[in-house]
Amino acid sequence: MKFTMQKPISCPFQKLFPSQLEKDDLFFMQLAYNEAINAWNADEVPVGAVIARGDEVIASSFNQTRRQTDPSAHAEMIAITMAAKSVGDWRLNECRLYVTKEPCPMCSGATVMARLGEVHYAVEDPKMGGLGGAASLHTLPFSNHKPKVFRKTMELECKEMLQAFFQLQRK
């Protein structure tokens, strides 16, 4: 049985238009936020991801598990695949992942395996988060790669969107 909203509701949140003048962490998280809006409008859980290399976005995506009927089609997984193709290597040491919700264990494992240099996420997930919420896969003692993890950039905005989405789903 496919889980969908009774009646798809357009996302009530407005896309952001960050200034191209300062491509800082907030800039890239705002782009991930916009991807989360794309997810909502596609009747997906509103999680968006962006991968940057230097000042350039090399990948961006949103959750597509329903659309692709694929439990691994999380925003982070799709973005990591896109980034590896863009770079021409599976090692993404010089890249930074920005995601609106803490990656689950699957996605957290992929960030370690892809050797992402940094992971920035907005909303912590104490139930299923893999980078400090429920587990800390990035700190496994014998792992040969430990990405730097940054939390809570745009936390309030991203949390508000997730909560609104699930409240509407419950109605």
The general outline is: globular
Radius of gyration: 15 Å
Instruction: Note the run of SSEs as H and E.
Output: HEEHHEHEEH
Name the poorly predicted regions: none
Strand segment tally: 5
Q: List the strand order in the largest sheet.
A: 2-1-3-4-5
Q: Output the number of helix runs.
A: 5
Q: Roughly how many Å apart are the termini?
A: 19 Å
Describe this structure in words.
There is one protein chain. This protein is of the alpha/beta class. It is built from 5 helices and 5 strands; from the N terminus they run αββααβαββα. A 5-stranded mixed beta sheet has the order 2-1-3-4-5. β3, α4 (105-113) and β4 form a beta-alpha-beta unit. α1 (25-41) runs parallel beside α5 (155-170). The two termini are 19 Å apart.
Strand and helix map with partners:
Layout: H1 25-41, E1 48-53, E2 56-62, H2 65-68, H3 75-87, E3 95-101, H4 105-113, E4 118-123, E5 148-151, H5 155-170
Parallel strand pairs: 3-4, 4-5
Antiparallel strand pairs: 1-2, 1-3
Helix pairs in contact: 1-5
Structure, briefly:
The protein is of the alpha/beta class. Helices cover 35% and strands 18% of the residues. It contains 5 helices and 5 strands, in the order H-E-E-H-H-E-H-E-E-H.
Key structural traits:
single chain, five-stranded mixed β-sheet, 171 residues
